[in-house]
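User: tokens in, sequence out, please.
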């Protein structure tokens, strides 16, 4: 039986573009705060008056969603179809606030997609990430950039590539500890090829 090829890069360096869209659940760990100088006895704080983030606040987020392979692009501008299906992805993120609007942290994730011959391509990015977060009422909108390594596995071939992940998100703060929302990230995988590269690998 003839096999439909999964095209990969033929030049020494190329970029794989992937779009990752995911649902996100985040839990915030608030840093201990000193009591107010003049607290009002017997008054409970409303959950509708949520505090902003402060130095030392931490978040732990779990993302799950879709991975959409876009194309391979060579540095001369030529691009190729990936011949990959829409796949799935998951990600665990930890971050800490270094100011009320800026947080830094680490992400570890995994994703998969399949070739026309039903063979799986696996990606596992491990990145450091910085995000700027702005708030409107009970909503937060992080704009982020992550950089690190991407472990790529297809059949018996494997690669460790450099990856960039610019992204945006939107979260609804249920209370001071929990948020729910959506993330959209663009995975730019810089894939360096070694040795003679065939036109196609199935």
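Assistant: Sequence out:
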């Amino acid at each position: 039986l003839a096999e439909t090829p999964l095209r990969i890069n033929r030049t020494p360096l190329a970029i794989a573009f992937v779009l990752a869209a995911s649902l996100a659940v985040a839990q915030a760990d608030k840093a201990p705060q000193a009591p107010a100088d003049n607290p009002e006895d017997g008054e409970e704080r409303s959950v509708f008056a949520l505090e902003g983030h402060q130095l030392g606040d931490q978040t732990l987020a779990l993302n799950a969603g879709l991975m959409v392979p876009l194309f391979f692009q060579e540095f001369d501008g030529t691009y190729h179809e990936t011949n990959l299906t829409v796949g799935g992805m998951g990600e665990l993120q930890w971050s800490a606030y270094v100011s009320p609007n800026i947080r830094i942290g680490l992400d570890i994730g995994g994703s998969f997609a399949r070739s026309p011959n039903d063979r799986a391509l696996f990606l596992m990015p491990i990145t450091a990430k910085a995000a700027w977060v702005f708030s409107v009422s009970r909503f937060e909108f992080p704009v982020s950039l992550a950089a690190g390594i991407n472990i790529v596995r297809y059949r018996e071939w494997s690669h460790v590539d450099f990856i960039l992940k610019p992204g945006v998100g939107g979260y609804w703060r249920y209370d001071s500890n929990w948020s729910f929302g959506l993330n959209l990230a663009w995975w730019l995988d810089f894939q360096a090829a070694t040795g003679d590269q065939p036109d196609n690998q199935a």
